[in-house]
Amino acid sequence: CSRKRASEKFISTMINFKLWARAFRVPFFTATIIPVAFGSIAAWRDTSAFSWIRFWLTMIGAILIHAGTNTANDYFDHVSGCDEANPNPTPFSGGSRVIQEGLIPAKKILFVSLSCFALGSAIGLYLNYLCGRNVILILGAIGIFLGIFYSAKPFRIGYGSFGELAVGIGFGPLMVMGAYYVQAKTLPMSAFLISIPVGILIALVLYINEFPDYDGDKAVGKRTLVVILGKKNAVLLYHILLASAYFGIITLIVFGLLPLASLIALITLPVALKAFAVSKDNYDKIRELLPANASTIGLHSMIGILLCVGLILDKIF
Questions:
Q1: ∠ CA 240-243-248 to the nearest 5 degrees?
Q2: Which of 294, 171, 306, 299 is nearest to 244 (CA)?
Q3: CB atoms within 10 A of CB 15
Q4: Which one, of 8, 243, 29, 215, lies nearest residue 120 by Cα?
Q5: pLDDT tens by residue, 28-71
Q6: End-to-end Cα separation, the chain, in angstroms
């Protein structure tokens, strides 16, 4: 009998864990892991300074803020009716759907979101105390503002034409520069410049995921770039930004801000070409576009990892 109860408790715990992993959208945590790792490694490459304790505090704090952002987005998109109005949710867009499916109450999602922001902020304040000069305080405050008011009133950044830019800044320069400063305690302009391709790539993840959400977003007055431009014009901007990420990497190498070893990131070009071709032919479809959504997410992770590898190889050799 006790074994049966223990087994039932274990199964219940695992189900609960999977449910909250879905609510937090854990697979998308790569959007945080990549820039934090990249900024930390860049600081080590430039200054030889590296603290594992500060690295893990930065990573955990940033992931908590990311989890708070995702759950806040679910809650406020539920309040606005945006997710309910979306007839075409996909594995990559439309929110986690845990509220819409009655799996977790909306108020509980809000409570957990605020708790994640509070815990992430506490870690950030401690890192700010360790590093001084309030750089982490400023970067963190901007990040939390973008995380909460991406979907929340009165700003609702994601409901206008600056949502993609906000995501690019939050998961690009803010995280790369924050991670860099935590390690190096200095913040050169190069830390911002090398973060730009990472920011473009994560903005592209959001951007391509807005195509399936077009009808739902338009129904509730959500003016994303895809809604403003229309899908036909929007896919052209997607192609331009995709090319600009590679152009940015090459430019940074030419000017010596990234090492020659960073050219390793160009091995991802076949994946980019696949995303280009699929999006060009299927921008007005939903299921057929999904390979482009997946490829864009993969490009962010693969290029981010390869840029980290390039920095490590340059430092070692």
A1: 115
A2: 299
A3: 10
A4: 29
A5: 999 999 999 999 999 999 999 999 999 999 999 999 999 999 99
A6: 61
Contact between 39 and 195 under an 8 Å Cβ cutoff? The reply is: yes
pLDDT at 222 over 90: no
Helix (H, G, I), strand (E, B) or coil at 87: coil
Task: Say which residues have a Cβ less than 8 Å from residue 74's Cβ, sequence separation at least 6.
Answer: 23, 83, 95, 96, 98, 99, 109
Using DSSP, state whether 93 is helix, strand or coil. strand
Prediction pTM value: 0.94
Burial per residue of 58-85, b for 16 or more beta-carbon CB atoms within 10 angstroms, e otherwise: bbebbbbbbbbbbbbbbbbbbebebbbb
- pLDDT per position as a tens digit, 133-159: 999 999 999 999 999 999 999 999 999
Half-sphere exposure of 170 (CA within 13 A, CB side): 28
Spell out the alpha helix ranges (H) of 99-230. 106-131, 135-149, 163-170, 173-184, 189-193, 196-209, 214-219, 225-229
